[in-house]
Amino acid sequence: MDGERVLKIGTRDSKLALWQATTAATMLQSLGIQTNMVPVKSEGDLDLVTPLYAMGVQGVFTKTLDAFLLSGKIDIAVHSFKDVPTVLAQGISQAAVLPRASEKDLLVFKDPAFAAAFLKGEDKTLKGTVATGSVRRKAQILEQFPEMHIENLRGNVQTRMQKLQSNQWDGAIFAAAGLERIEERPENAAAIPWMLPAPAQGAIVVVARTDDNEAIQLIHRLNNEATQKAVKVERDFLNTLMGGCSTPISAFARVVHDTIQFSGSILSLDGRRKFSCKQSAGLDQYNTLGTQAAKKLLEQGADKIVAEIRAGAAAAATTPPFEVPPKS
Ligand SMILES: NCc1[nH]cc(CCC(=O)O)c1CC(=O)O
Questions:
Q1: Quick check: CB of 199 below 6 Å from ligand 1?
Q2: Is a pLDDT exceeding 60 seen at residue 321?
Q3: ipTM of the complex
Q4: Which CATH architecture has domain 6-100+204-223?
Q5: What class of enzyme is it (predicted)?
Q6: Looking at the domain that runs over 224-313, which CATH code has it been given?
Q7: pLDDT at position 105, please?
Q8: Residue nearest to atom 6 of ligand 1 (CA)
Q9: What is the mean pLDDT of residues 323-328?
Q10: How far is the CA of 328 from the centre of ligand 1 (A)?
Q11: Is 178 touching ligand 1 by the criterion CB < 6 Å?
Q12: Assigned superfamily of 105-191
């Protein structure tokens, strides 16, 4: 069977997306499985089959490729796992999780003295300006440094790096994995020891159509079991706390011999309130550990933070960002 079918891999055209798709393609080819890269244009110029999601509007990063998969234009999509909604689109299945890269977040800085104080994370009076578009990173920075100014920074990795260079900010936060994969980790970058990553940060997932058994079997040969189990715990934690929207929820699990070590947290948006847990369980508990840890935090009062964040998101969705002209 191997060598007969050519699997069509869909990829977006950012440097990181291309790197990830090419990596999966190379791994498949080394197993004798043939692949073909299909570049996928941005959403606007597509005739999309709208994928159905079990929960609300999610998956801004994955929607386009989901539609291509469901309509059979591609057989495989490769994603940064942290960008994938905790519940996949209907008809799409996880086929493999690739070995994890660094899970850390990095501070890219200008002044080494500022960086040293920031990385140490003790001085509650430290001031400065750090850029990030992530509510998770923002909440954790404010927890450490209540007086820090957070600048909103969006865009792909390269755009964000350019913006940091052309502004007066003291630093910006990036996922180590993203910068390292495209070989753009600068000299003046350091892992932030106290920052807990986003669920699934540093992991790559390969998905296929649920009914395409042949593709799923072939791709599954790339699966790294330790990463798959660790990320399952992290994503269950996220899903049980509140699902996939952008939230100050962090989680990291690591398989060590026959145990799984887990840390997870949820912060209020201003970083002032936090519920966190750190625990270890037998590896055979990987199917329940994340859900149970989240339930425990909800019982301890994390449900109030979840409710606040939901209410804030709902308000933002119904408040137009500009004045609506009266109907004529
Ligand atoms: N938020 C976008 C995104 N999605 C995946 C990565 C990098 C790879 C990873 O985290 O697994 C990044 C960049 C970043 O967070 O700096």
A1: no
A2: no
A3: 0.96
A4: 3-Layer(aba) Sandwich (3.40)
A5: transferase
A6: 3.30.160.40
A7: 98
A8: 178
A9: 50
A10: 45
A11: yes
A12: Periplasmic binding protein-like II (3.40.190.10)
